[in-house]
Amino acid sequence: FRKAQEGKKKVVLAGCVPQAQPRQDYLKGLSIIGIDRVVEVVEETIKGHSVRLLGQKKDNGKRLGGARLDLPKIRKNPLIEIISINTGCLNACTYCKTKHARGDLASYPIDELVDRAKQSFQEGVCEIWLTSEDTGAYGRDIGTDLPTLLWKLVEAIPEGAMLRLGMTNPPYILEHLEEMAKILNHPRVYAFLHIPVQSASDSVLMDMKREYCVADFKQVVDFLKEKVPGITIATDIICGFPGETDEDFQETMKLVEQYKFPSLFINQFYPRPGTPAAKMPQVPAAVKKQRTKDLSQLFHSYNPYDHKVDERQRVLVTEESFDSNYYVAHNPFYEQVLVPKDPLLMGKMVEVNIYEAGKHFMKGQPVSDARVYTASITRPLAKGEVSGLTEVSKR
């Protein structure tokens, strides 16, 4: 941002760290944005003012769920709508900076979320991602819950479009397992759930203040695997959390060996300034590095998709691959399938034969007799085109 300032650019710095620690020297003279005050800060900065709106917006003393959902936006991918269903969370994890910045749970009302979803489909979107620090905790502050929201959203999804659920921590999804299994089996919902475990040692989880034990995590995973055949469970693991012993780490290795998670986010512990974990006795850097390496080697020792070669799968095509050689699609389990770059496939749901599998993807060839589904109610917005503009604002 220093380079931007030198080039006479207007700069607004956003994120959890500046909100949680706004008095850092490197932030002096900059406009700083809280999580949900985008429009106000940008408007004032353009006028030449340096502003800091870091407080949480409230209505009659009750915290609101963040920026309004009906604000104009530009989608990174015109085919994918990303909807935040709540901000903040109910946990107080000792390593987390996000909670420090975003505070307690604040959920958006169901009708506002459904309206945003409907609008996105009317603008050509074919896939919705729900995001949150913890989707499982949705609604606890406003007298509702996640399954109630999801059943309402499912009603709004047109044929050929899909809904992907975001991250949920184990404690809050435990109460809704039966309903969640039904929802994850719905043909327009990806059978995919991101459930961070962080460690398979109960003592480490206690020091992290994660508010569950390993048995709780296994109960969630085992139940969903039984009730939602083929479901993809993604998880996160932190290597070298303060106090983690070799025995603790081996428990984590055993968990990964047991479940062979197809998607695993491995993080070497880094102490965030101002968090309780930063003040705990630290694991030596070399040990953290070695544990991260050992877990990575275990993760790369198995191939989760080899048995799917020769399967016929239904996939939704939404983007181009990084190397620009393929289009990227996802099957009902949100597993990545690379398909030929045929412009007629983009934004469509089509059946393919899987002919090759790698560690993180499969490759599929559209079958000749497959029906192609077009989810879009209308033409998708052009890349960079603004969503949600009224006729007045367009003028």
Can you put this structure into words, describing what you see?
The protein has 395 residues and is an alpha/beta fold. The protein has three domains: 1-55, no CATH class; 62-300, pyruvate-formate lyase- activating enzyme; 307-374, OB fold (Dihydrolipoamide Acetyltransferase, E2P), CATH 2.40.50. It has helices at 2-6, 16-20, 38-46, 98-102, 110-122, 146-155, 170-173, 177-184, 202-208, 214-227, 246-259, 285-299, 391-394; strands at residues 12-14, 31-33, 52-53, 58-59, 62-63, 73-74, 80-84, 86-87, 106-107, 127-131, 162-164, 192-194, 232-239, 263-268, 312-320, 327-330, 336-339, 348-357, 362-366, 373-374, 386-387. The strands form seven sheets. It has a five-stranded mixed β-barrel. A three-stranded parallel β-sheet has the order 1-2-3. A three-stranded parallel β-sheet has the order 7-10-11, covered by helices on one side. Strand 18 (348-357) and strand 19 form a beta hairpin. Helix 5 runs parallel beside helix 6, helix 8 (177-184) packs across helix 10 (214-227) and helix 11 (246-259) runs parallel beside helix 12 (285-299). The longest helix has 15 residues, at 285-299. Residues 390-395 have low confidence and may be disordered.
CATH superfamily of the largest domain: tm_1862 like domain
Taking the sheet with the most strands, its summary is: 5 strands, mixed, barrel
The CATH class of the largest domain, by name, is: Alpha Beta
How many individual helices? Answer: 13
Shape verdict: globular
Descriptors for this entry?
3-stranded parallel sheet, alpha/beta, pyruvate-formate lyase- activating enzyme, 395 residues, 3 domains, disordered C terminus, OB fold (Dihydrolipoamide Acetyltransferase, E2P), globular
